[in-house]
Amino acid sequence: MRKRRDPIKDTAREVRVFRARSLLAALLVLLMAGGLGARLFYLQVVEHDVFTTRSEKNRVRVEPLPPTRGLIYDRQGELVAENRPTYNLTIVRERVQDIDATLDRLVDILGLDETQVEAFRKRSRQRQRPYQPALLMSDLSERQIARLAVNRYRLPGVEVEAQWLRHYPSPKIMAHVLGYVGRINEQELASLDSGNYAGTHYIGKTGIEKQYEEALHGKAGLRKVETNARGRVLRELERTPPEPGKDLTLTIDTRLQQMAYDLLDGRRGSIVAIQPQTGDILAMVSAPGFDSNEFVTGISYKDYQSLQEDLDLPLFNRAVRGHYPIGSTIKPFEALAALQNDVVTPQEVIYDPGYYKLPNDSRHYRNWLRWGHGRVDLERALAVSNNTYFYTMAHRLGIDALSSFMYKFGFGEVTSLDVQGASSGTVPSREWKREKYGQVWYPGETLSAGIGQGYWMVTPLQLATAEATLANRGDWVRPHLAKRVGETSVEPPFKNTKPDVKLDKDVWWDDVFNGMEKVVSGREGTARHIGKGLKYDMAGKSGTAQVFSLGQNQKYDADELKERLRDHALFTAFAPVDDPQIAIAVIVENAGGGSSHAAGLARALADEWLLSDDENTHQAEELIKEDVEVEGT
After folding, report:
1. How big is the CA angle at 268 (ends 79 and 422), to the nearest 5 degrees?
2. What CA–CA distance (Å, rounded) separates 463 from 250?
3. Is 403 exposed, middle or buried (0-12, 13-18, 19+ CB in 10 A)?
4. Which DSSP letter does residue 260 get?
5. Which residue, among 190, 197, 200, 168, has the nearest Cα to 71 in the 3D structure?
């Protein structure tokens, strides 16, 4: 049987294979085309908005426009906080490929020392919102700006921006009133409105700057700009202008503030002056002060440490946070409390042998005049600051009645409207001591409280506030620093925050005022030396606050004590008596007697406020130098 030979070429089979492969290839092409089409549909339709935005961001950038901070003026329209043009160095970390290399270049270009480099790098690491510029340096010099401009091509994401920088023309005398602005830190950044503070590097840290931050800051704006591939702005597309902060007018009189600071003459202390009818704070000085401008651009660690370690505590606001025994300046208020509680009459005479003894107690609570003042009534007791009389009043009243009456004048409370960081001080009572120390109250402590010693603690602002209420014959007016915010006036008298002080007999005000007038103008007055040439009626009260307690038979000798253990000098006053225009509280730390070292300061300040330049002969300023020791506690 003959074998069948295979054909050389099977055409039919080849056609079948070709068709199968062609179909497979067609399916593969269709599948890939479908996938490509689906991807294109996803990118161009589903994700259209996302990629449009990304595309726009490649050439369109939204930049914040920080508002201009509001200016601050004193009551006479004098500028006390201004803005001056400056240049800042900023960096947007998201636009920098190698942050460490860029920082090294900047350090080399700017020629920073080791201390500056450490602060520089710390700021660069501070957490910032995405694509928001982080502030590296403030107040660049012209030389630094020029060097950065020449090297700009090497510094992507680094910008030099023009901004207004806060400046205080009178930094030391206004430091504690105004406070200062400083760089926004991470904690503040987390709590701030990101939109309103976009592009803003500074915020109020203390004082009025912090208290009125919202009004002073304003509202941020924005602009859309077209940029090239390097991020350089080509043109502006759209702008929403920022709203500048509101200007603030204070009740402070710069002239009076400067004088109060000069009167302290480098000594530690505080002077506060208030206009009784309105509650306007005319002067509020804490000495020593500090240069608040150093904090705006960022104070060096060395300088800040020096301020912190200074024994005179220049950063501490004595006017609103300093706690001092009230001393004998309590006596006018205590006299009113005794009259109101029917434990004494203005005519009652008490004999002072130089000391007071509690029943069944051998201890002598001494008058500052060792041999005593003899027969004293209320008016004379105030004029000579007789301790024995007020020991008697305190014992008759009891600590709780005395304390509750003192609350009516604002002691033991924060009563100011807008004074940032104000302290409440301490008004002692039985309940207070039991809660704080878990101890009972002793009768001897009531006597100490009766002359403003022991647990009593007041701030100079509280003392001036109480003096203003006293001058108003009990009408309560809340002290404040702002007179006008923008075009809106802050209307006095800020009443309804505390009830007015009411007495059963209005004549009792006169009885107390008469005694306070005799302090200044009476023959025996403890501060009679400041009454020389006085052209108006002044009511005053001197006080001396002990830094430490003396034993029963110990005698105070300032010469044997270290300076910081000596008594504080206090003086309160208001004038004119019939139409009070100013109420003053003066505290000079470790100065000694209030009559000799604080009264003259109050007289000089009152002269400056009440008398014209022609009338004001500044006689009281000469009296400040006198060392007339006529009063103790």
Report:
1. 65
2. 21
3. buried
4. H
5. 168
CB 218 within 8 A of CB 65: no
Lookup: tokens for 101: 């290399």
**CA–CA separation, 319 vs 326, rounded Å?**
14
Which residues touch 120 (CB under 8 Å, ≥6 apart)?
Answer: 103, 106, 107, 112, 136, 137
Distances (CA, A) of 63 to 97, 136, 223, 379: 21, 18, 5, 71
Length reported for the chain: 633
Angle, helix 443-450 to helix 399-407, in steps of 10 degrees: 40
Task: Tell me if residue 306 falls in helix, strand or coil.
Answer: helix
Secondary structure of 416-469 as H, E, C letters: CCCCCCCCCCECCCHHHHHHHHCCCCCHHHHHHHHCCCCCCEECHHHHHHHHHH
pLDDT tens figures, 216-243: 999 989 888 877 666 667 787 888 899 9
8-state DSSP, 268 = S
Distance CA 506, CA 14 (A): 128
124, 170, 286, 328: which is the annotated catalytic residue?
328
Whole-model pTM? 0.82
Best CA proximity match to 95, nearest among 229, 241, 237, 255: 229
pLDDT (tens digit per residue) in 53-67: 666 556 777 778 889
328 in active site: yes
